[in-house]
Each structure stands twice: as C-alpha cells, then as structure tokens.
Design brief:
mainly alpha, 3 strands
C-alpha cells in the first residue's frame, strides 16, 4: 500500500472514532449525538412543541462551539419543516430555549440568513423563508435535507445534478493532461481498492469524493469548479446505493479506472462514457436517472 493510501485510511478511521484528522478528510464527520432535554427551560410561544427539539445530528459538523451548534439545530428544524415558512424567530426566545447569549443567537441567524433560510426586516423581525428562497446548493442545506423527511427527494435531485455535471467534467478534464492530476486520481483508485478489500466503507467514500472533486476541478471550467463541493456533499450523504459510486465493488473500481485511463490518453468521449456508466442507477432501485421531465 502506498504511503498516501495508508495515511488516508488512518485519517478516515480517526474521524470515524471522533478524533480530529487533517485537511479535507475531516470535512463531513457525521457522528450521531443523543438528544438532550433541558429541564426548566420555558417552551416557545404558540404551542409549537417541536420548536424545543434539539438537533438530530452532532452539532457543528462544520461549525464550532455554541455558534456552530445553534446554526446546526435551527437549520435542521427549518429544513425538516419543524419551523414552517413565515414562522417568526424571536432571538430572546431562542437564547432562552437553547441557553445561549444574544450574540450567539444573532450570529447564528446571520449565517442562516446568508443561506436563504431566514430573513430579517425592520419592524417585522426574523422569519423563516419559503423553500424557494433557500440556497439548495449550500453543503449544509444538502446535509440537513438528506437527513430530514425529504431525504428521498434530496438523493434523487443530487443524482440528477451529478448526471448533468460529471460526464461533462470528465470530457473536459481529458483535455488537460497533467501528470500530477493523473497520479492523484490513480492514488485515489488505489486507496479505494485497499479500502474495499478491508471492508472500510468510510475510507472508500472519502477517496471516491476526492476523485470526483479533483476531476471537476481540472475540467478547466471555473463555474463547474464551484460545483465540486456539491458533488462531495452528494457522495457523503447519499445514504444508500443509488449510483455506481455509492457501493464499493469491483465494477465501481473498474469504471473509475476507465475514466483515469481515458484522461491519460486525452480521450474525452471515452471519459464521458465511462463516467455515465459509473453513474448508472442500480437495477434494484426504482428511480431512473436522469429521465426527462415533462412540463
């Protein structure tokens, strides 16, 4: 096993055990956290008992401290529908319910406003915005939707988006024959192979994510490059097998290898075809991607 493969697999296992790991490998540590019920905290007005429910997943997967926790909790509650559209959010009540300062509440609401989840207006206050206003390409919102009641819709939409983005990115990347990129892609395939042999699904997923992100980044299209984080999020939250990327097996490795070989020879058509094969839906999954939509 190469040094890179060993390092990446070790880092993935560290993240899985709750330990910090370096670089991008520590980006999506979805560890579960038990729900906590605080005693003696007043319920929010309006009789909406769901408002007091603490976030389902570990607080601050990307944020840190109380601020990250509150963003995570409120974001999940909004995306899941526990806090419906146009629901007023009173900072004093939020601070009292979650036992945090007004500064923490204010900064957290600013983050949520930047994501399009809430709006703050003079004489109106802060209110939850409708889904049509959300930044659905934000990695946090992708995560929250993927673990909420709209999980199936989120997975389908991500699969359709990937089918649109990645075959084109593979074709374009074939025109940029950089040896360092070729080596890095080959390293990721090697890591996936070792991880599959050891039954290490976490390391396989992380190497797979880096493979696809790198491919998009070297396509030579800056607008596509900005979507690489979305593909990474899609691979991390897909949940159950939908495409060939979601299940570690020999066929998946072979498709990745064919993509890498096509890039090495500059064959854009072959790279695109191999990517489409990789993204093909498994036969046992009912949804077919991507079926044209009739309006």
């Amino acid at each position: 096993m190469s040094t890179l493969a060993h390092t990446m697999m070790t880092a993935a296992r560290s993240a899985d055990s709750g330990l910090a790991s370096p670089g991008e490998l520590d980006r999506y540590p979805y560890a579960e956290a038990p729900a906590v019920d605080r005693v003696g905290v007043p319920a929010w007005d309006g009789g909406d008992h769901e408002l007091g429910r603490v976030g389902r997943r570990a607080a601050g997967s990307r944020g840190r401290g109380l601020h990250g926790q509150l963003v995570q909790q409120l974001g999940q509650m909004i995306v899941s529908g526990d806090l419906g559209a146009d629901r007023p959010l009173v900072p004093e009540e939020i601070g009292q319910r979650f036992e945090v300062s007004r500064t923490v509440v204010r900064e957290s609401l600013r983050v949520l406003e930047a994501k399009g989840l809430v709006s703050a207006r003079p004489n109106v206050g802060t209110r939850v915005r409708p889904v049509s206003d959300w930044n659905l390409l934000d990695p946090d919102i992708i995560e929250w939707r993927a673990f909420g009641p709209l999980r199936d819709d989120q997975r389908r939409e991500l699969s359709e988006l990937r089918w649109t983005i990645e075959p084109l990115a593979a074709r374009l990347a074939a025109g940029h024959g950089r040896e360092d990129v070729q080596q890095r892609l080959a390293d990721m395939i090697e890591i996936m192979g070792h991880a599959m042999a050891q039954g290490d699904a976490l390391t396989f997923s992380r190497a797979d994510s880096e493979f696809h992100s790198l491919l998009i980044q070297v396509a030579g299209n800056r607008m596509l490059e900005h979507l690489s984080g979305i593909v990474s999020a899609a691979l991390q939250v897909s949940g159950s097998p939908v495409t060939g990327c979601d299940r570690p097996n020999e066929a998946s490795l072979a498709h990745h290898g064919r993509i890498c070989d096509a890039l090495a020879t500059g064959d854009g058509a072959a790279a695109e075809a191999a990517m489409r094969q990789l993204l093909t839906v498994h036969p046992e999954v009912e949804r077919v991607v991507p079926a044209p939509r009739e309006h």
